[in-house]
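Retro notes
What went well: the complex prediction finally ran end to end.
Inputs used:
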Amino acid sequence: MRQAETTRTVNLLKEVDVAVIGAGPAGLAAALACAEAGVSTLLIDANDAPGGQLVKQTHKFFGSERQHAGTRGIQIPSLFTEKLANYPNVEIMWNTNASGFYDSGELVLEDEKRFMKILPKRMIVAAGASERFLIFRNNDLPGVYGAGAVQTLMNVYGVVPGDRVMMIGSGNIGLIVSYQLIQAGVDVAAVVEAAPCIGGYLVHAAKLRRAGVPILTSHTVLAAHGQESVTGATIAEVDKEWQPMPGTEREVECDVICLAVGLMPLVDVLWHAGCEMKYVPELGGHVPVRDENMRTSNPKVYAAGDSGGVEEASSAMVTGEIAGISAAKSLGHQAPGADARLAQLKADLAAIRSGPTGEKISAGVRCATVCGGVWE
Amino acid sequence: MRLKEHPILDFPAGREVVFTFDGKELRGIEGEPIAAALHASGVRVLRHSPVSGRARGFFCAIGNCSSCLMTVDGMPNVRVCTEPLKEGMVVETQKGHGHLPID
C-alpha cells in the first residue's frame, strides 16, 4: 500500500513578470507573446503536455494562415513549444494546478507533492472551459459521456467509447465528434438537436449526411436506459416552446449517449482575483468584463481563450496573443512591431467573429466589454 | 475496444503492462489513463455512488468532473481518467467515500 506523502508548502515567494494559467491554444499564444516581449514568463498547466484540448482535434482548422488554417489541431501545440524553447525567459510547469489567487497578489500552485506560492506582476487566465451537462432520466449511467471525453478516449488513446453512439447537440463539436466516431469505425445512430436548425457549420453537417447519419432537429433525449450502463435511449420531438410532444417518443438503440451541449468558461481564478464578472449566455456563462486588450477590471489580470467566453481554438490563439502583448506592454516591454501586430490581431478577431455563426459571439462580446471599450 | 487502423492518427504501440481490477488481471498500455485501459477491456462501471449506490462511469475524461473516482494502490478518490497506468497497479471499485491509508 502506498503511503500518503506529507504535503509540503514551499514558502519561497517566486517573483515573475507574467504567470499564464493554462497551456492550451490561448495560453501558448499568450506565453509566446510575453516571451517575445522579453518579460519573465511562467506557464502553468495541469496536464503533462502542451495543447489543452488541441491534442484531440484531428480536423483541419479554418480561417487565416496566421491562426494556422489548414493545419490539424493536433499539430499546433508543437509549433508553439518549438518557438518557446528559444526563450530563456520562459519557464513551464506541467502537472501543476493553479489553485488559488489571494488578495496579497499571491498565486498558489499545487503539484502532486507540494504547494508553491508565486508573486506574478501580471496574470493571464487561459484555463479553458468545462462541458455542460443535460437533464434527463438516468443521465448518470456509465455510457453518458461528454463529447470531449469521447474525443480524448478515441483520438488520444485509441480506445473507442462503444459500438453505437447517439450524439446530443449539432454544434460544431457534436458534428465533428460524430464524424470522428465514423472515422474510427463506430456507428452513429443519430445526431439529436433541440433547436429547429443545425447549430454548426454546413461543411461538417454535410459530411455526416453523406455518411447516412440522420440529424434530428427539434428533438431531445428524454431518458437513458440500462441498469449498470447505457443500453438505449428514448427521444422525442419538441414543440416551439422546447417541450417534448406526447406521442412522438421513440426508442434509439445505443450504448453511448454523447453530450455536446456546450461548454462553460472556467473562471474560478478570475473570481478569486475579484474581477468584475457578468453572466453572458452567448459566451457560455459567467465571464470577466474586459477591455479590447483582454484586461479585466483587476489591472493585473487578463483573460484569454474560453476563460473569457466560449468560442473556438482560432479565436483563443488570437485573444491569447492580444492578452500576452498587452500584459507585457503594461509592464513597459514590447517586441518590435507589437503595436502593428496588436492591430492585426484585433482585425483577425473581428473577421473570425463575422458571418452568421459569429453573430451570437459578437453580441456576447459586446455585452462583456467594459462600457466605452476601455477601463477608466 | 482498441483502434487498430485510423485514417488520420497513428497509435504507436506502447508497452503492455499487467494490472488488476477488483482482483482480476487485466492488460493495458503503460502511461495511458487507467480509465482508458479499463474501457478497452470493457469495464465501464468505475464506482457506485456513496448515497444511492448508482453506477458511475467517467464523464469529462480530463480530470474536471470527478465522476471516475476509484481506489488505486490503496489510495481512494483517484481520478482514473487522468492517472497514468503503471505495471502492477491495484485498481479497485471504490466503496463509499473510501479510506485514506494514513493513521
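What we learned: DSSP finds one helix and seven strands in chain B.
What to try next: split runs per interface for comparison.
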